[in-house]
Each structure stands twice: as structure tokens, then as C-alpha cells.
Amino acid sequence: MEEKDLVVIGGGIIGLALAYKWICTKKKDSVVVLEKEKDVGRHQSSHNSGVLHAGLYYSPGSLKAKLAVEGIKQMVSFCKENKIAHEICGKLVVATEEREVDELHRLKKQGEQNGLVGLRILDAQEMRKIEPYVRGVAAIFVPEEGIVDYRQVCLVLAAKIESMNGKILKEVKITGIVKKGKLWEVRTEGGSFLTSNLVNCAGLHSDRICRMAMGSCPLRIVPFRGEYFELKQEKTYLVKNLIYPVPDPRFPFLGVHLTRMINGKVEAGPNAVLSLAREGYDKGSFDWKDAFDSLTYIGLWNFLKRYPLAAWEEWKKSSNKRLFCRAVQKLVPAIKEEDLDRGAVGIRAQALFPDGRLVNDFLFVKEEGILHLLNAPSPGATASLAIADELIKTLEL
């Protein structure tokens, strides 16, 4: 049985960032990352829009606001230092109706409170100088936002960890987590590890790891499937950079948006529909255990009672390409249904409380020697390096 200064469960972007920052700041290389997949960053870390989020949407004082603002600075610096493909291209958040303009102004004020600079409210003519084909009555221009290859970020982080004598073990299944005095024993099919610092960064399975260690968890991960369409190559000229709608403030989802990827392709999406498999990237994917966990959870049914219309609208967009296209056309009317091909799919690990409330902020749960990161969807990738700093501070408390 090996003893380590730090054991991280989960080799996604946050788990990797934590291991990297621990070695760099603590000057200790007795670190192991345990990953169940064949490679790192296989789920939320690479199944996303590839956007660098600057912190516009998040409540002032929240962890999301604090860590997105700090995180994008660190991420851009990391990408520059390591020659990772990225670009600060700016983003438009577009009000397509007059009733959304007040929310635009609220978002601008909130973004400024969070520390964003250069935010501007644009009229219809000004926004079309940035995005010629966009339709709307007003918009916020967010100059600090951009795009990046998060998959490459994960690979670089992994290479750096291993170059500094940290370990990343892949295809490792956790079979048990047991308290041993002041230490924690993490049991795997290939051996066990002892540590006084155990961090659960298991993303889609973080609630299960929490229950394995603690016997209970204050919430449940309910997977939401986000489906994207890809704009045909000959139509990518319709979108220069990033075009987002004004989001519904009740939800952490940002609505169907248009994103130029770092590879030059343009994606439209995602929607947000319940997935019956936590890793269900194929339409119709089903996993008995995952489905049972979601469908027997009172929190899901309470959520559906709270927001039945929103859930129905998202399901309709998933099952009907024409309706999905209408959501896209609110932003760029020139995009037609035939211009859209099925694209990527992501699964969001959304934490839900039993009363049906969505967990809207990053959530840490700590006990002696163990720390669970139970909610870290978007902007988790952007903020990953800053989240790692916060995890280390929390471990030291």
C-alpha cells in the first residue's frame, strides 16, 4: 500500500489542475491521480463549447464569479506559455426582444461588479458591425471572452504532472474508500493508497464517490444531455465568433448559442434534456443504474414540478430539428434547417438538491482529510486552475 501526500479521484481538467498546482505550490510530488478512463479529460472537460468564460453570468460574491474571473486569466496565461490553441475573440449576448433589454443592463452591471472590463451595450447597428448577420434590439459585447482547445489543456496538464514525478493511473476502478485514523485509504482493483489529503473530482460520478466515502451525499448528480448541431462549412461565414442569447436567470444553462470553435467550425447549441445515462453520448443511450438513480430521486421530480414548461420546451427542441433551428434563427435568421448537421453531445453533471433546487454555484464539501467537489459544470473548465487554488486553500483550513 502506497502513501501519498495527495490522492485525486478523477482525471478531468479540474483534477489535473489540482495535481499540477499542488506539485507547483507545495513542492511535493507525492501525488497520484486516479482515472477510470483510458485517457484524461474524456467527459465534461472535452465535451463542451470550448469557450473561455469571463464571469458575466454569475452572482457577485459567488465562487463561480470569483473563480471565473481569476480562472480565465490563469487559463489564458497557461495557454500562452504552453502554445495551446486559443483566441480572445469577444462575445455578443443578444437581446432579441425589447423585454430582454433590462436583463442586459443587469448583466452588464453584474459583470462589472465581478471585475470584467470593457463591457459595452450596443444597439442593433453597432452589434452588426461585429456580427453582420445577427438579429436583435441590443447586445452586450464582452471583449475578454474567447475560445480554446480544452482537450489540449488536459493533455498538457497531464504531461506536466508526470514530468514533475506525479502519477496518473488510468483505467482504475475505485472499489472502496475507508477512514484509517487521520488518513484515508482508497482501494482500487490494482492496489490501495493512503493519504491525508483526498479530493473527489469525479464529475459525473462525484456524488457516488461521496456516498462511498461518507455513507451519504447532500445531493444527487442528475445528468443533462446537451446536443449540438454543426453549421455546414459553406455557412460558417454567418457567425464570426460567439453569439449568445440573454439567459433565463432561473437556470444555470445559457440557452442555445452559436460558437466558433478553435478549429474554425461553428456549433449551435446546446439544449438541456434529461439523460438516462451519465455517459450517454449517443441518442437513446440508457444505463439501468444511472436511470434508476435519476428517476427514483425526489429532487428530479421536484425540479420538474417547479419548471414543467421549461423542461417540455427543451425536450421538444431535442426531438424536433425544426424547433431547434427556430431557437438558432432568433439570433441569426439566415441560418436554415438544412444548414445544420448533427454535431457533438455533452453531458452536464448537474447537482440537484432533494427539494428540486439546482445547485447554481461550485460546491465543496469537506471533512477531515477529504474534500468533495460536488458541482463544477460551466465555467468549470475555464476556472479549473483557479478552482485548484481554492481546493488547496480549503484542504489547508
TrEMBL record:
It is an enzyme of class 1 (oxidoreductase). InterPro entries: FAD-dep_OxRdtase, FAD/NAD-bd_sf. GO terms for molecular function: oxidoreductase activity. SUPFAM superfamilies: FAD/NAD(P)-binding domain. Keywords: FAD, Flavoprotein, Oxidoreductase. It comes from the Bacteria. Its EC number is 1.1.3.-. Residues 5-391 form the FAD dependent oxidoreductase domain. Its cofactor is FAD. The keyword Flavoprotein applies. Belongs to the L2HGDH family. This is L-2-hydroxyglutarate oxidase. The gene is lhgO.
